[in-house]
Amino acid sequence: MAIEIAPSTAYSGGSVRHTVRAVGIVARRELIRLRRMPGRVISGFAQPLLYLLVLGAGLANLVGHGGINGATYQQFIFPGVIAMSVIASSLFAAIAIVWDREFGFMREMLVAPVSRAVLVGGKAAGGIAVAVTQGFVLVVLAPLVDVHLSVAKVVELLGALLLLAYAMTAIGILLASRMKRLESFQMVMALALQPMVFLSGAIFPLERLPGWFAALCALNPAAYGVDLARRALLGSDFALTIGDHVVPIWADVTILLVVGSALLVAATKILGTVE
Length: 275
Hints:
The chain is mainly α. Helices cover 69% and strands 3% of the residues.
């Protein structure tokens, strides 16, 4: 039987300050968890490095000297590799919800004098912070692939990664909100991660794809985050094109915000039900 756990009525008259503080506490817990898991940090850096230096170097000869829109293959996938790190970290950040539920801590959080939205917001904020940090660190690899940086490019990239992490963390939280076992969550995430990455344009351009394949890419919110990251570092010549239409930046931003917000609202409703 499903039992609806309502937040304490003590919260009903809570102030904005109280809400912000509660979100911050939950988010801080996620950051502390990351600090105590150095292996996660190392793997989050090592895998994108392998994609960039090994896969990038291996496929560069197949692409040819002309590259893609005047950029080498390694330059082309560099923003995609950063985005891949953010996607993977964002999705797996939600494992904390499954962990807390499996060991009974989630039940205690749900009966605390805070709303479910605060708990979901805190989990999302922590996951976003972790994912963006892990992805943004990879910017130091830019000189290795001859990608020139400027303050404006770095700021635009940071904004793109925040939006991407927002949408991806929301997907992870929604999927985790009903799962009870860590093994189930890891299996589902492993199945979801690879299609999401390969249909995002992180590794290859999405232009001139078959119609059915382009339709799948258009349904993938990660594609719009990758597009923002690539535009930030490489310019508008690398804008995402679906069919014969170039996706405007405002559409990328809107899609990521709408998807992230809608999924967090759904996760908030689901998270309040404990079986």
